[in-house]
UniProtKB/TrEMBL annotation:
Tagged with keyword Transferase: yes
Lineage, broadest ranks: Bacteria, Pseudomonadati, Pseudomonadota, Gammaproteobacteria, Enterobacterales
The protein's name in its UniProt record: Acetolactate synthase 2 small subunit
InterPro entries documented for this protein: ACT-like_dom_sf (IPR045865)
A molecular function GO annotation: acetolactate synthase activity
Key words, A-Z: Transferase
Amino acid sequence: MMQHQLSIEARLRPEILERILRVVRHRGFQVCAMNMSSGENSDSINIAMTVASQRPVDLLSTQLSKLMDVATVHIQHQTTQQIRA
């Protein structure tokens, strides 16, 4: 499996983290690491997430961008390191 790092900025809503994790799971990705912090204003959050899958990360990024409260999704870098299953 390939690892990918994503940076997500979203509006702070009680359900936003659940929605993001649901999309990650439904698209066939596994969360390896995640860090969430408050954004510059109190109405936003920044999520740094490392996910793993053999699927193209662009598919996940596109679906996350479609979520109502997600402002931006950036693919930080794609790790070519192979993970043994």
